[in-house]
What does this fold into?
Amino acid sequence: MKRPDDGGIRAVVVATGIASVAVQLVFIREYLAQFHGNEIVIAMIFFCWLVFGGIGAVAAKGFRAIVLPPSPKILALLSCLLTILSVGQVVAIRRLRDLVFIHGASVGFYPTFGFVAATILPYALLMGFVLPYSLLVVRRRSVRYPGNWIYMADNAGDVAGGAVFSFALVYWLTPFQILLAVHLPLLASLLRLESAFSRRTAAAGLVAFFTLVAGTAFEDRLLPTREGRRVHYAESRYGRIEVIESGGQVSLFTDGEPSLSSQDPALAEETVHFPLSQVDHPRHLLLVSAVGGMMAEVAKYHPDRVDYVELDPLAAQVQLRFGLVTPMDGMTVIAQDARAYLSVTSTRYDAILVSLPEPETFQMNRFYTAGFFDLVKKRLAPGGVFSFSVEGVANYISEIRQQKISSLANTAGTFFDHVVLMPGERLFFICRDRPVRTDIPVLLEKKGIDTQHIRRYFAGDLTGQRIRQINDAVDTGTPKNLDLSPRLMRLEFFGWFERHGESPRWFALVLTVAALVYLLQISRPQWVLLTTGCVNIGAEMLTIFTFQVLYGYIYLQIGVLVTVFLAGLLPGAWAGGRFAGNRRRALMTGDLLLCLLLLLFALFLVAARQGMPPTVLYGFGLAVSFCCGFQFPLALMVSGDSTAAASESFSADLVGAAIGVLLVSLVLIPFLGLLWATLCLAGIKLISFLVAGSIHETS
It folds into this structure.
């Protein structure tokens, strides 16, 4: 069949797809930077994107004859508006947080959700509107123009945008530079759009172009304000880096969170001397991150070798440049993930000191699990010591805080004979196979090491009674913190609500009721598609969280993971559309294949607890998305392939995806862990298999 002339519409759709995926990934980066790397925000973004996109798609049909009749000129104007909104919304994400919320304060679940929804709404709503509107425009030119060609063009653009972002843009460009790069093809495609040129569209195009250029030119000025003077800013492939100077003190901010300060002598002394005083001659040391002034304290022991591990090489350079980490004899900076380094090195260390932020995100939690402690134990020399710390506690310990401390102590106790908690600026866990002494000043005096803070602190606030009190608070019955079952993440989720006087019950209740009402109204083929959408996006969230647990730098790879889950849909839909056999059985086969893939993924999780090749995650994503794409045209044809059936099928897929995002990210993973979340998705598809078996084709 001869391809009908589309007047340049498809080129606009492809370019829009390229831009939309890249913009979504930039939004993820910005939200993570504003909310301190909290990965739950990713689920909020996907949910709002799906919901508002669906509303926009429905609006395109209702507005076509009333407000916006199909027209190439209007499509061109909408594309320009989309471009302008991408810049405006990044500015809004960066600047509005501190206007809406108290600067530097923790933000609760519901306010965070509301902020994400409000700031993402304009772009997501218009993006959902533009695709079906493009089909309406092209059908004014050619009435029989196949609708699936537009959707295939959009999918091709999505895949291309994700690939370009993941393999090129994220490495070389800043967020506003990325927006400029991905929107230039869209603006160029408007020049080929027939019957679209006018003074108004030309002016809109120029405004859109200069908005992109302005965002790039003033990128550093559009960053959130800090208390102090920003002396350095850089976008790393692993996160946003800022250096702030205030009152003579220099602080490093990573993704909006202070991670290192030039002046913290009390914490530096405790971080170093609490563990190193236990070892007679600490010669080989491994430091995972640092605190300000730490190297000067380490130098007092005259070690032969100090390996300093920092994931981000750019962050390591900044730390050395601004004196946040002071070079010393025998020190080697290792730009690698600490877990990855420990899994390959053959060096045995006398002491391993971890100075990382709280385990409040999956990225940080992976350094407080049994998997990490096991790696540490294997790399310690006989008599060696391992230490890490969390936020300090006062006299009163809340129930959730006690459970966190107990879980950490019990997890460490699996690998070390002696685990002693030492209260200080932070709460330190001193772990070794030999007894841990708590008379730190006496040990330091024997070694001839002079300190300022510890000497005064032990003579005043830190008493033997206080040390016993904090250690007696450990509940030995508290479950351990595991990679696949992150106990601390579950407690953090509850603690998030508790700190702000909130409860997840109302949120869960409203969504559950809405989902049940919808489920009672849909047909069996649509039920299959709802579970398909749920499993597709649910599996995507599983891979994202699994990658974060295993590797810890999700921003670098999230584009690849999103892309592979898009890449399989197009060939899957093509294969399903050409299938000429028994469609009901094909639907059932698709359900069984998805069950099998999820069970296979669960086996990989169990077998590869310390690591899983990224290619496994990518292959899993491609296979799942192919099966999901394969099922859509089958379910549509089983339903009769009418216009109403198509609309209802798209709706079911979209609602299923929205349910899947929240179900997996906010319920299954935090409460059941990655393994059981995977098995639950397999169970959903098993139920779908039974439903598919009862379908009777209408045509």
Remarks:
- The CA atoms of residues 564 and 612 lie 17 Å apart.
- The radius of gyration is 28 Å.
- The chain has a mean pLDDT of 86.
